[in-house]
Design brief:
The chain is mainly α. The protein is built from 44 helices and 8 strands.
Length: about 900
Amino acid sequence: MAELSARQKEAVSELAEWREDVAAGIGPRAVVLGVPAGWGRSIVLKAVAEEAWPAAEGDPVTFIVRIDGSLVVAAGAAGAQAAQVRDHLAQTAGDHQLARTLGLDRPQGLISQAVGAGSLAASGLGLLAGLLVLQEAVTTAGNLRDASRTGELARLGGAARAVAGLASRALVVVLVDDADQVNPGVVLVLAKNLLYRDDARLLLVAAAGPQSILARVLARGGEVWMTRRVAFADADPDMGLAARTGLAQELCPGLEDRLARRIGQRTATFAQVYQAATADRLADLGPGIDPAVAQAVTDTAIDAATRRPYPSPAAVTVHWAGGVLHARQLAAALAAAGDDPPGEDPDLFTASPALDYPVVRLADTSSPQLRHAAERLSPGERRAMAAAVLAEAAAITTEPGQSLVSQIVAARAAHRTRGNLTGPDLDPLPGMQRSLITALEAVGDLADAARTARQALDTCPPGPGHDQHRAWLTAAILRLSAATPPGQDDLAARLAQEALDGGAAIGTEARVWAAITLLATPGRTEDGGRLATQAAAELGARPALGQAATLWRLQLATQAGRARRPDLTQQILAPLLAGADDTTRDLALRILHAADDPRADIRLRITLLEAELAHAPGPDDQLRIHSALAHAHYTLGDYRQARDHSQHELNLRAIRQGPDHPDTLATRHELASYTGEAGDVAGARDQFAALLPVVERVLGAGHPGTLGTRHQLASYTGEAGDVAGARDQFAALLAVRERVLGPEHPDTLATRHELASYTGEAGDVAGARDQFAALLPVVERVLGAGHPGTLGTRHQLASYTGEAGDVAGARDQYAALLAVRERVLGPEHPDILGTRHQLAHYTGEAGDVAGARDQYAALLPVMERVLGAEHSETLSMRRGLEYWAKKAATAG
């Protein structure tokens, strides 16, 4: 560590201590090295990596993953950056012997360790083939939002989880240099998924500016478990004059103070101080040297460290193009301007060719020297370069095998430099813009895709020759508007109105999406219905559209069903019901039937998923479909169907992901819950009992998933009849939750509630009363007086007060509770009826038999109307009325 300053050595030492603590089993940690660029953070991380490597090369004990944020292309969107970080993660991991041993020496090898529903999203809505696309497209807005969540960010999360799984078997150190140059959301996804396992021996070090957004995002985290695993290195970020002068004195101890201060005054970063203070000639400056000569030598060293050469044509070209270019575009642009091919350049970063996107980006996007040089480019040079950039983009976006990142970078550069072109040079632009928008959709960057479509539409020249491109862009904008809440996209609303008014530039697909937009907008369903009828007629008049017409008709019908327009749904589907193939006809029939259901959204979703499942997809899609069907049936209350689909999902996950994968464990948890909801409480108890030791081993005893499993096991133990066992399990769980989550966390309060309930059910009614009495003021303060949890606690306290013998106290508590519940829930809510029933009962038990009779008499007709005459609660109420009526007559 001879090249490091004292403060940098301290940072290395602290990070090494964190590494040792993680290796000793304290659990995974993220440490933010909060220092500015130029402080020397890269050399600190290099030292950490070198110290962390095992002494014997190839010894698979420590696993180092290095990610350089400066090489992550500023493609302008989280999805593209996530794809690059994922590839960096896999590629750098694959260099190690342990990766080769585990079959992770290729990016796909690492990613395949974490295949889950989130990483199985289809690539978008642009394809018009196969039943999968029908299902994806028909679910419109929901799938667009899902695509954003489960695209490249989810794939990055899966790869990071695979590394976390690896960390359960070996020490893993992940170093992210220049992390503040990466989208904070991407780093947060990386951190969350690296840190999620309690048993992982993993250290994540992120170097970022002390005031960067990233540092604040990691500090917040979003979950308590994560923020507890994030720390900040105690590094002094100061690079002021005194710090620079002190570093110069440290590096060159024999240097006069005035010369060391001169170095500090004329430099801006520690890197410049290093270069100046370690110059060979400065070491020769000793006593007796003429002061003027000493200053001249020092100034020469400073000049060499601070004066950058005039920027190369390559750096100027990349700056002119917005900071990022595909390597092929850069070479073509330089050739068009008559300049030499790019060589080694301190102003440029080049991504590794092994990552399949040879991209060149600026090291400093804010360089005034580069900006001034780019401003001096002549119009002729700009036009020639822009034409070359566009031509290469057109080639890259149409070549087989090009990665999405390459396509996005190339197409974005051409889109960004389009203002330099005129005339025939612009001919490839529309196709390239469509490729860019489609690629952005594929990686889930829907907002960026929508923004690009808007920019393209704004600059699309008027005239008949551009109508087709305008129609495509209009359709894209309307389609992408489904990713925003209805009514919040002004341009989409204007385009939808233009379609309704019969705008000349509106094509068939745009009209379909305009109708869908209007049907989804509150107050515009009638307009949407009129436009949907028009679009459906247009589809019927254009048989050449083939499968696309079927797709759009199904999309329209689905949205009409969601808008509670079964008549319109039937009208739109009529041609498919009469003349389509059996598969499409069946799908149309099921959409039609689902559209007439009060919960049409869910029914339609189930219909489309079942149709897709019948198409015999591959195992990955089967996994996704069974998972979605299980959740949809659960939402409808069809617990047996949810249980059966969850069982299929579990079988697939166990094969494809392994029995200990977190997604497999989550599915086992859901299956056990569905089993209990379906009526098999003993089966649910046994499943949770079998699951608990596995999640404790994989996730750790204090992980939220483990505590949730313990809660469910205790609950189903009680429901299966072992109330004393449930009481004891909840008592043990309470101690853990209070220690891990704190005494006032909602989960801790829920456990206290269950413990009090099972204490009473086990026979200790006075103990239950006292526990609920102690719990009530806490839940009132934490949850609020009107929260359902608070009202439930008050109900239980009143009940056990009565059971413990204080019938007058129970009566008064139920009377007070009734006033609150009527204000919060309304007069005929089932909980209100239950409270009124208990109040009537304890009114009689407290001696007011006539009052009890009158309350039962007033409540009975309400219960008959709300619950039905034969409901068990109504029958109980009728028997109570007879009982108290007789008691009142006897008393009279």
